[in-house]
Design a protein that fits this description.
Strand content of chain A: 25-35%
CATH topology of the largest domain in chain A: Rossmann fold
Shape of chain A: elongated
Order of helices and strands of chain A: EEEHEEEHHHEHEHEEHHEEEHEEEEHEEE
Number of strands of chain A: 20
CATH architecture of one domain in chain B: Orthogonal Bundle
Largest interface: A-B, 34 and 26 residues
Shape of chain B: globular
Distance between the termini of chain B: 34 Å
Number of domains of chain A: 2
Strand content of chain B: under 5%
CATH class of one domain in chain B: Mainly Alpha
CATH superfamily of one domain in chain B: MetI-like
Structural class of chain A: alpha+beta
Largest sheet of chain B: none
CATH architecture of the largest domain in chain A: 3-Layer(aba) Sandwich
Strand order of the largest sheet of chain A: 6-7-8-3-9-10
Helix content of chain A: 25-40%
CATH topology of one domain in chain B: MetI-like fold
Order of helices and strands of chain B: HHHHHHHHHHHHH
Oligomer: heterodimer
């Protein structure tokens, strides 16, 4: 077991493109760290650099306090679970799991014992003599995990280990991964593009974009206190709604009405510049509520023409459009592109912004009808239109 | 949105119809079977006639009956008594096996480099390698004859193995490159992380997975080296290094008036047997899809 430290780690390809730019990251001993971000954000490259499969162009990588930049993967004492599992097809499950120990010239009896134990943890005992081709997807995934844990390495590295499983199995394996990591207590770096996995698995999550770490924090803080538009938009499902807004005389003007700024927010903003300014307001879908269901709820009340309703059983997503409401921010457009949101149905494009509200299942919202909604303004997020930095959550 | 949903709804019934069509039992028409039989007879008849001839002696040799009138194994007995033939058989085995082994070892290194490393002009290199196999052998026969005479490789076994590699190696490289390319790189990376050196990752993971490719390349180079005639007859002068195809050409009848046709046929049948055995042995390896299950299936 060991801690991992990345100091200004950079990956530069021969053609000059930088996949990872000056990344600083400290991962504590036994910590479960998630690297998350859209495809091409450099998270996998960062992981492969820790593994030693990718050369580090610049900066230092320390595992357990020792600089390992120039060590071959086999000398770093790490285990990796690959996205496609990379099981050796010509070996049985037992041989697959014992391969690393065999290479380390471990005693035959010891290998047997350790493989048996790992198989017991992973519930693979009946399959030990089978070949990977005869296993189901979930079993293969467990073998890949088993191959990592038999060695008791200093560090586990996992590269989207669940992305090849179907949805149901993925949820099941997610808890399994978490259980195993807690049981063995090994420092783990886990790469995923799935923000749900990131939120549920990690002790801490590092959100990456374009080779740069945007924010490293606990899942709760990422969700509640995103430091910029990108993190706010990336974390959460359905994602945060972004609306153009104006701050004026201690009030916030939103497209569907204005409300006094909550006190907590006002005190933070007071230090800012001037009285009237344009901002981007971020609203999580769950901070809307149906005013007819909860008439006592405080907040900004308004009526919205509902266009689409998705019922989830326990809750209900109501979509409505805001005319002249499209947020004009280059950062936000880039974010939409980055996160693959650009092809989401924003009807007609142009100047219409679609907003989603998560309402109680008892809500009477109907497509084509009107809904009385109430917005809890104290959870509003405010962002600078130029640069996308949060105006309410500051680093540290 | 509506416009998009219309073709989507349209697709399903169409797909269903297609499925129904392919689901019908398709019978192989009778004329197809006739063609198959005709082709098989056409291909195998010469070989049958070879066996036929090898079982005949003396005046029987000139009959054209479909079955030998007095089948006998005399021809086989006489060729195995002939030290020229048994020697040639031994030489052939050594030459073919050495060529195959060298081609596979050197070829697998080359192919691995071509499949995995970032090399400039990779395609050009592969194309040149392949072009070499198309050169007529007669173009190198004369220069090599001269060269071998000068440096003392003439009429030796290495003197045959080396020129054979000029066609065996490109063949092996070409076949193995495509096999190595098919093996997911993740498997090697997994091996590296598991503690293997680059070479261990190669021979413990890549080579076993490329076994069907090695078998294919091996069998083809073995056949080519085993059957080679032109260089064998040009570069040998005595039974010391002469291989079977060349030795057969020197067969003579026991008297001046006897045709060596029977013994030639018997020798030809004899040298065909190892090839048939090899193909049958390796067929399973070649067909086996070993990489199945390596990655998500």
């Amino acid at each position: 077991m060991a801690d991992i430290k990345l100091e200004k780690v950079t990956k530069r390809y021969p053609d000059g493109t930088e996949a990872v730019k000056q990344v600083d990251l400290e991962i504590g001993d036994g910590e479960f760290m998630i690297l998350v971000g859209p495809s091409g954000c450099g998270k996998s490259t960062a992981l492969r650099m820790i593994a030693g499969l990718e050369e580090i162009s610049d900066g230092d990588l320390l595992i357990g306090g020792e600089r390992v930049n120039d060590l071959a993967p086999r000398d770093r004492d790490i285990a990796m679970v690959f996205q496609n599992y990379a099981l050796y097809p010509h070996m049985t499950v037992r041989e697959n799991m014992g391969f690393a120990l065999k290479l380390a010239k471990e005693d035959e009896g010891v290998i047997r014992e350790r493989v048996d134990e790992a198989a017991r943890i992973l519930d693979l005992e009946p399959h030990l003599e089978r070949k990977p081709a005869n296993l189901s997807g979930g079993q293969r995934q467990r073998v890949a995990m088993g191959r990592a844990i038999v060695r008791s390495p200093k560090v586990f590295l996992m590269d989207e280990p669940l992305s090849n499983l179907d949805a149901k199995l993925r949820v099941q394996m997610r808890t399994e991964v978490s259980r195993i990591q807690q049981r063995v207590g090994t420092t783990t770096v886990y790469v995923t593009h799935d923000q749900v996995e990131a939120m549920t698995l990690g002790d801490r999550v590092a959100v990456m974009r374009g080779g740069v770490i945007q924010q490293v924090d606990s899942p709760k803080n990422l969700y509640e206190k995103p430091q910029n538009l990108f993190v706010a938009g990336f974390i959460g499902s359905p994602s945060m709604n972004f609306l153009p807004a104006k701050l004026e005389d201690g009030r916030i003007k939103l497209p569907f009405g204005d409300a006094p700024l909550p006190d907590a927010m006002r005190s933070v903003l007071e230090g800012g510049n001037g009285k009237s300014r344009d901002v981007i307001a971020g609203v999580r879908p769950e901070h809307f509520e149906d005013a007819d269901v909860e008439p006592d709820k405080e907040g900004l009340k308004f009526t919205a023409p509902v266009s689409v309703v998705e019922s989830m059983g326990s809750e209900l997503y109501a979509y409505f459009d805001i005319e002249h409401g499209a947020v004009q921010s280059s950062e936000l457009n880039e974010l939409a592109e980055d996160a693959g949101l650009s092809d989401l149905p924003t009807h007609g494009g142009g100047d219409v912004q679609q907003v989603v509200a998560r309402l109680d299942a008892a809500s009477g919202a109907r497509p084509g009808g009107e809904a009385n909604l109430v917005l809890d303004t104290q959870y509003l997020q405010l962002f600078d239109p130029s640069g996308g930095k949060s105006l309410v959550n500051h680093e540290g | 949105m509506e416009a998009a949903s219309v073709p989507a709804a349209d697709v399903r019934p169409r797909a269903k119809k297609k499925k129904l069509k392919t689901g019908e039992q398709q019978k192989t028409p009778w004329w197809m079977w006739i063609c198959v039989v005709a082709i098989v007879v056409f291909c195998l008849f010469p070989f049958y006639w070879l066996i036929n001839t090898s079982l005949k002696t003396g005046p029987d040799l000139s009959t054209s009956a479909l079955f030998p009138p007095n089948p006998t194994l005399d021809n086989f007995q006489s060729i195995f008594k002939d030290s020229n033939f048994t020697n040639a058989l031994k030489n052939s085995a050594i030459v073919a096996l050495a060529t195959t082994a060298l081609a596979l070892i050197v070829g697998s290194f080359c192919a691995y480099a071509l499949a995995r490393l970032r090399i400039r002009f990779k395609f050009a290199i592969l194309a040149i390698v392949l072009t070499i196999t198309t050169f007529p052998q007669i173009t190198i026969a004369a220069p090599i004859f001269k060269l071998w005479r000068d440096i003392g490789l003439y009429n030796t076994i290495p003197g045959l193995v080396i020129p054979y590699l000029t066609f065996a190696l490109p063949l092996a490289i070409y076949i193995l490159t495509s096999f190595f390319r098919e093996i997911p790189r993740d498997l090697e990376e997994a091996a590296l992380v598991d503690g293997a050196t680059n070479f261990q990752a190669f021979y413990k993971v890549v080579v076993p997975l490329a076994a069907p490719g090695l078998a294919t390349a091996g069998i083809l180079t073995f056949i080519a080296a085993w059957n080679e005639f032109l260089l064998a007859i040009t570069l040998t002068s005595s039974p010391a290094a002469r291989t079977v195809p060349a030795a057969i050409a020197f067969f003579t009848g026991s008297t001046q008036f006897e045709q060596p046709l029977g013994t030639i046929s018997a020798a030809s049948v004899t040298i065909s047997i190892p090839l048939i055995v090899m193909v049958l042995l390796f067929q399973k390896r070649i067909v086996a899809g070993l990489t199945a299950g390596a990655v998500k299936g």
